[in-house]
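User: quick one, sequence for these tokens?
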């Protein structure tokens, strides 16, 4: 039976049984049509707000499959999307009607403990990579939720508990293997295809499909001092005022994330606080345990915490501590800013909007970044934004489509109210589905965006990789 796929130009391409069978004959992975049993589960991604249906899904088993899929798409001019972890807020992994190239089966990790590097395939999650590197007491600079894919995180910049010490995730890449728009397989590094190496360190999925990443590793763990400490919402102003001072002086081994939300029914929180507004600080100290205890001692003396689970724990456990707050299948919508500082007035604005939360799953989150990333020049990589000391992420999350309007409006209102505190920049990986050219320019700035556009023209002149936060030539 002939199937129809959406073309890159918006038209329709007829794919005959003979063409499809010829493709399958040389493809090692699975090819899923909409009537296949595994199709629906494969197309579903983390954010239930995104409900697109590709015309065909190809599940790559290795690099050769990716090359074949790209050449197939180029030959027939299909619209394509690329799935790594499927965790992007805008749902870039899945396109409507086109060809979805799924890398999620490619989870190989190879660690060189002597060179302190790891190569990981593009289908890996943060948890996959952390598990292997921690066998050697080493870690890559990754994010905060273990189910996140390394590919989208890295090509969009990437930050986490180790960013204050070592910079963006993409600052710590040694090399990448990439399939370009013409179906060629190339290596990129500082000394090989250096312009493409530069573009992929923050330029998102615009320039090719990265099949594997080689990361620089750092001595971390296998145990760190970390966890969370929480207070009732009535203490939020005191806690955030303290947070401003604490993060200004904390050593780079210490990263602290502030969260304003409604207390979930988590076992570490007392039952009488469940369902009530709280403020929590998530702390990771990756230096010596003894030094960390001294650093966090003032936190424990602040007010009257309702819970304190900061303790010696495996680094891999710390890396998954926030997982329960981000389950697959909820409806998610984010708005975010970079901040150069947390101003006193901003504290009042954040607390006011936290009081208006309309879902028990939503939160206002402050991630502390200040440190190593500011030591590199702005043009070092497209991730840029090296004047940022914090990321403010307004994370709306809920379960019913009937509640869409209220939850979207809450996030947008909080975003508008906090715009005056922003550096003007934003994190490309946190841009939602409807945010277009202006916000992409805000993420990069005009000079870097112009340089990226020139490289887009060189490496993808036909805009094959358009189902991204798209940079046009």
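Assistant:
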């Amino acid at each position: 039976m002939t199937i129809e796929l959406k073309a890159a130009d918006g038209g329709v391409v007829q794919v005959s049984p003979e063409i499809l069978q010829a493709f399958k004959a040389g493809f090692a992975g699975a090819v899923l049509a909409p009537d296949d049993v595994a199709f629906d589960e494969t197309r579903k991604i983390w954010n239930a707000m995104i409900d697109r249906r590709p015309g065909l899904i190809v599940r790559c088993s290795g690099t050769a499959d990716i090359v074949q899929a790209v050449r197939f798409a180029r030959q027939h001019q299909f619209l394509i999307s690329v799935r790594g972890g499927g965790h992007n807020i805008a749902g870039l992994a899945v396109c409507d009607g086109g060809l979805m190239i799924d890398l999620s089966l490619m989870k190989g990790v190879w660690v060189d403990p002597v060179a302190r590097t790891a190569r990981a395939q593009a289908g890996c999650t943060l948890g996959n990579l952390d598990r292997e590197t921690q066998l050697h007491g080493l870690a890559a600079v990754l994010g905060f939720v273990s189910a996140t894919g390394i590919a989208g995180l890295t090509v969009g910049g990437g930050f986490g508990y180790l960013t204050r010490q070592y910079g963006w995730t993409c600052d710590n890449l040694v090399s990448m293997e990439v399939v370009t728009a013409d179906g060629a397989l190339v290596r990129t590094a500082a000394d090989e295809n250096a312009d493409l190496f530069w573009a992929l360190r923050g330029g998102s999925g615009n320039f090719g499909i990265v099949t594997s990443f080689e990361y620089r590793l750092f001595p971390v763990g296998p145990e760190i001092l970390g966890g969370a400490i929480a207070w009732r919402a009535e203490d939020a102003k005191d806690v955030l005022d303290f947070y401003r001072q604490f993060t200004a002086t904390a050593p780079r081994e210490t990263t602290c994330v502030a969260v304003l939300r409604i207390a979930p029914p988590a076992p570490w929180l007392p039952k009488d606080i469940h369902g009530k507004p709280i403020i929590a600080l998530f702390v990771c100290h990756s230096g010596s345990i003894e030094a960390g205890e001294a650093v966090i001692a003032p936190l424990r003396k602040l007010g009257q915490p309702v819970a304190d689970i900061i303790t010696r724990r495996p680094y891999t456990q710390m890396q998954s501590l926030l997982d329960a707050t981000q389950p697959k299948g909820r409806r998610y919508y984010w708005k975010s800013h970079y901040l150069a500082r947390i101003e006193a007035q901003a504290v009042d604005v954040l607390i006011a909007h936290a009081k208006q939360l309309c879902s028990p799953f939503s939160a206002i989150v402050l991630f502390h970044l200040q440190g190593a990333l500011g030591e590199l020049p702005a043009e070092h990589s497209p991730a840029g934004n090296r004047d940022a000391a914090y990321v403010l992420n307004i994370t709306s999350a809920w379960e019913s489509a009937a509640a869409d309007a209220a939850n979207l409006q809450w996030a947008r209102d909080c975003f508008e109210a906090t715009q005056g505190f922003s550096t003007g920049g934003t994190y490309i990986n946190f841009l939602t589905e409807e945010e277009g050219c202006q916000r992409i320019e805000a993420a990069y700035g005009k000079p870097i965006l112009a340089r990226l556009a020139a490289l887009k023209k060189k490496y993808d002149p036909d805009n094959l990789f358009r189902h991204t936060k798209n940079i046009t030539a």
